[in-house]
């Protein structure tokens, strides 16, 4: 079986099949509702408005994304309005293929294990895995973690570029700077890449709103998928007066409001920096106690990446696309020691697909079964975060290899 799994003739057909299935779910009208609307709606409209002189996001006007996110949104315009979605899917599939090819370029069990896991995670997440901007940052992050062991400077460049598409790969950069052997090369490369992006955007493009993405999330309320919103959803189901689910037309998401919502949102604003600080502190302790660098980096990357979602007041389904990357790193460097979080992340990802797109309306209608699914998914995020911290704390005493 191991020899079969290591054969590229098996891996590549599996890769193609997974991407065809997900692409079909994205493009087949009615199957997944509006799950592809971010691409054919928002991304296309932003790109068209920009090229038609109606303002460039992050340059002429504030934007929720870092400026490099414009690049993958502009490329599909070559297919025109009608072909935008198909070109997007082709673009991100080719990017994934490049990352997948680099991942399996060494025909080893750890690399193959990680490749199969990535395919499983993509299928578990469903249409959102290809139908959101996060797919671009994930592919760059996969390339980054593959390069981490042998070319830390290249890892820094790739992860920094990923963070300028969607901020979360900064979690892996931070983990590498804290725990990896090549921490200085990662840091210098990431800082140099960021400086290059800023210089080009600021001086060549005149991007007045280059850093507008930093504050775009601060004023929003509790999105229904956030773990901080879960108690309020159950309170709404119990018909406690004043609690309601509503659609915010300013940021185009469903949120929950009512007694306690502002307090929970305020806690969420502080929850993420506290969680990040706790993870980094435990990581530093592990480093000082001589934890194995690669294992420590994977654990800290997992804690920080999951923490970015579990302690956020947004909690969008596409955030679960991130989780596979630190798990893949863990599977490559620690094997069976990462089996439990790998299984928990897959389980939470499957639940995420059930929530969105398949039964999202039922959840919004406060269907108790879907509230149980959402609660279980959010609980799994916290369990994975806690597992990573405990494993990181115990990492110096962990012996042996898988």
TrEMBL record:
InterPro entries: GT87
Record GO cellular component, one term: plasma membrane
Listed name of the protein: DUF2029 domain-containing protein
UniProt record similarity statement: Belongs to the glycosyltransferase 87 family.
Record key words, sorted: Cell membrane, Membrane, Transferase, Transmembrane, Transmembrane helix
Main location class: membrane
Membrane topology: Multi-pass membrane protein
Superkingdom field: Bacteria
A GO molecular-function annotation: hexosyltransferase activity
Protein localization: Cell membrane
Annotated source species: Gryllotalpicola protaetiae
PROSITE patterns for the chain: PROKAR_LIPOPROTEIN (PS51257)
Residue stretches spanning the membrane: 12-31, 82-104, 116-147, 153-179, 186-205, 270-288, 342-359, 371-393
Pfam families: GT87 (PF09594)
